[in-house]
UniProtKB/TrEMBL annotation:
Belongs to the glycosyltransferase 15 family. The keyword Transferase applies. Keywords: Transferase. Residues 1-35 are annotated as: Disordered. One of its GO terms (molecular function) is alpha-1,2-mannosyltransferase activity. This is Glycosyltransferase family 15 protein. It holds the Pfam family Glyco_transf_15. One of its GO terms (biological process) is protein N-linked glycosylation. GO terms for cellular component: Golgi apparatus; membrane. Residues 9-21 have a biased composition (Basic and acidic residues). The active site is at residue 271.
Length: 388
């Protein structure tokens, strides 16, 4: 907003003649020229709204599936996110665990934030084998995958985690009443100042799903996932977004009009998404179909391709947002904004040359191609001068 400028009082100049003194009301010099009104673009106006911390908070929270043993890695993630964003917005934290949290865990996580913290136990039925799974066969599949050197191929707990993240976490009572969640993992890094409220962005643009990194899945972990998905599409066409529409996301997950899965997925360890979407009839039907097929245990289906395929099948391009201006690192994979300079060097401290978007395994270029969009369209944050 531009302040109203008060001009200096009109100066008075005097002239004299022999008979009388006449005052002339002429404008005198001012100390500075009045400033012209600053006209903000629509994007800048949106940014001003999204950075207004006095607005009512969105019904949203951070959701973390975490073990007690991951306490200090989690505290690191919390420190990054609190410093970069949440100290100004104070969204609550929800922690879920398949085992009871220790007193130490509760105490030390509460010390990391001024926001509310909530602690929940994963129901046993959501972290165990359903009765239709042949556990002997599941064990043999794990042993074979471990022998073949597949990442997490031999892990039983990893499979329970993927199944829980695919079909159950959003049903936990602690998420009741929420419109959006932001998934956070232990040991991740946020490397850019997040000046605006991503949850408010989701509301204003009516978004359903947001991501930072898109990449390819290991084919050996999902050999029959697409085949099972095609069965679902045939059985439940009413849940599909029309793939012949120009704004369909179908081509994000297939390069041959649906004959095969191209392995592209949004990496779900960072996602900001709609609780309502995951609780929808369509998504729930998709998860139940996959769950009955047994691929979470007989193969190693991950929650990331499950979420991503559902998004590509059921949502449109306008429902999804790439959080380009949020720097994020998980393991060795990092997203770092590569332009413009005021963002890269002024609000971030990551190295844009190592950003995964440059890697041949990145699916973000494909996302930009099918959405006919460019990087600058996903820059929500603006230079600091906009707020002055």
């Amino acid at each position: 907003m531009v302040d109203n400028l008060e001009l200096d009082p009109i100066s008075k100049e005097k002239t004299e003649n022999k008979e009388e003194q006449v005052e002339l009301n002429l404008p005198g010099p001012t100390e500075e020229e009045p400033k012209a009104p600053v006209l903000l673009s629509q994007e800048e106006q949106e940014y001003v709204r999204l950075t207004n911390t006095s607005r009512p908070r969105v019904k949203a929270a951070y959701v973390v599936l975490v073990r007690n043993s991951e306490l200090h890695a989690l505290r690191s993630s919390m420190r990054y996110l609190e410093d970069r964003f949440n100290r100004k917005y104070n969204y609550p934290w929800i922690f879920l665990n398949e085992e009871p949290f220790t007193e130490e865990f509760v105490k030390l996580t509460q010390q990391m934030t001024n926001s509310e913290t909530h602690y929940g136990l994963v129901p046993e039925k959501h972290w165990s084998y359903p009765d239709w799974i042949n556990q002997t066969l599941a064990r043999e599949c794990r042993e074979t995958m471990a022998h073949n050197g597949i990442v997490y191929g031999g892990s039983e707990s990893y499979r329970h985690m993927c199944r829980f993240q695919s079909g159950f976490f959003f049903l936990h009572p602690l998420l009741d009443g929420l419109d959006y969640y932001w998934r956070v993992e232990p040991g991740v890094k946020f490397s850019c100042d997040i000046d605006y409220d991503p949850f408010q962005l989701m509301v204003e643009r009516d978004l359903k799903y947001g991501f930072t990194i898109a990449l390819e899945e290991y084919r050996s972990t999902v050999p029959t996932l697409w085949e099972t998905t095609l069965e679902f599409i045939k059985t439940y066409p009413q849940y599909m977004y029309p793939r012949n529409k120009a704004d369909s996301l179908f081509r994000m997950v297939t390069d041959d009009n649906g004959q095969s899965y191209n392995l592209c997925h949004f990496w779900s360890n960072f996602e900001i998404a709609s609780v309502k979407f995951l609780r929808s009839e369509g998504y729930q039907a998709y998860f139940r179909h996959l769950d009955r097929a047994g691929g979470f245990f007989y193969e190693r289906w991950g929650d990331a391709p499950v979420h991503s395929i559902a998004v590509a099948l059921m949502l449109s391009q306008k429902d999804v947002h790439w959080f380009y201006d949020i720097g994020y690192k998980h393991d060795t994979f990092e997203h770092c904004p590569t332009e413009p300079a005021w963002l890269v060097h002024g609000k971030c401290y990551c190295n844009p040359l190592t950003s995964f978007v440059r890697d041949s395994g990145s699916c973000t270029p494909k996302y930009l191609e099918i959405t006919n969009s460019s990087t600058d369209q996903y820059i929500v944050t603006r230079p600091d001068k906009i707020l002055k």
